[in-house]
Amino acid sequence: MGDRVNGRVTNILGWIATIVMWAAALGMILTWGT
Amino acid sequence: MDDHRVTEVDAEDDPPSPTIPHAEPASATGSLEAAVEHEANPVKRFFKLLGPGLITGAADDDPSGIGTYATAGAALGFATLWTAIVTLPLMAVVQFICAKIGMVSGRGLAGVLRQYYPRTVLYPAVLGLVIANTINVGTDIAAIAAAINMFLPIPITALVVPIAVIIVVLQIWGSYRLMARIFKWLTVTLFAYIGAAFLAQPDWREVVQATFLPRLRFDHQYLTTLLAILGTTISPYLFFWQASEEVEEEVSMGRTRLSQRKGATDTELKYEQLDTITGMIFCNVVFYFVILAAAATLHATGKTEIQSATDAAQALRPLAGDAAAILFALGLIGAGFLAVPVLSGSAAYAVAEAFGWKYGLDAKPSEAKRFYAVIAVATLVGILIDS
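^ Those are the sequences you sent over. The predicted structure of the assembly is below.
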């Protein structure tokens, strides 16, 4: 995929951010209106 | 080519590439590298390479964000301080990836989604962004009005429309860059929270412990506060804005066609990394000290609920005394005027890229009517929703 792919650290942190935000979004939906 | 704006032609002038573009952008255009290398003074050199990353970081501390952090500090004391440390690398990495996508592909995020992903991915992403940004615009304009109301006895409701009109007029007929240059200095007043936190003389052992060895809780109030902090800190409008601003920067260097913008040198990427990290550090330092100041002043004196901007301003009392309200108001006004155009602008970038319209904050209104219409409508609907 060329020479502009993300490094390992960037990918790990990027995926952690994605998982955290998905969890937060899920939490928001589950607690909506409470 | 006279038209220096990003156009529909740009969006379609290259066939989709199965790989990430090559390393070097087209030559014979201006470059940040050249500008930075010609600067002998290292401090000036550093400031020269700060651009979209710093503005994005400053815009992340919008009035809604400041309100969230102050509320967290007042309600839970030091308990959420650790979030400023934990979110920093996550935010820096995500923002850098967005910047890199803009620099390497020569397109904004919605432009990339349009080019490489099905419409079933593109449209919901853009729609979600527009809805969230519109609501946030309304909240931030109301916060600016509340801040002005702290030293001008004009009802908040009477201030909302003039503020919205001023921001839209400045965006459409003025220059966002000029606005950013002015209002980014007002956000420096947010650093007052650092002084206020120190003067409030918190128990530093407790502060360090809450920052690096937090005791996690799983009660409703703690979890909803965490959600609010995460939601206001890692926000999609910053992703879209960052990538589109990288494109705008390249267009302003003369890389008006997509083929000229594609690719980025190692040095450009290194500078961009520094820019985004600096922006996110600025954002999280303010974020950390707003929580700390609110915890050390409001929470420590039993005031655990913030009902108004005046309440939130009391966190600055150790530093500014009776001038706390004015200091807080100036910070909020600066943060708001910086963030609202970022919110409405990122919505407009996304919509314009999704539909292949002409766009660009440096474009004349007649050149990018639909782009500016989205900015105006998002601002108007935002204040209607909030009223």
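Chain B touches chain A through 24 residues (CB under 8 Å). Confidence is low (pLDDT under 50) at residues 15-20 of chain B.

Shout if you want it in another format.
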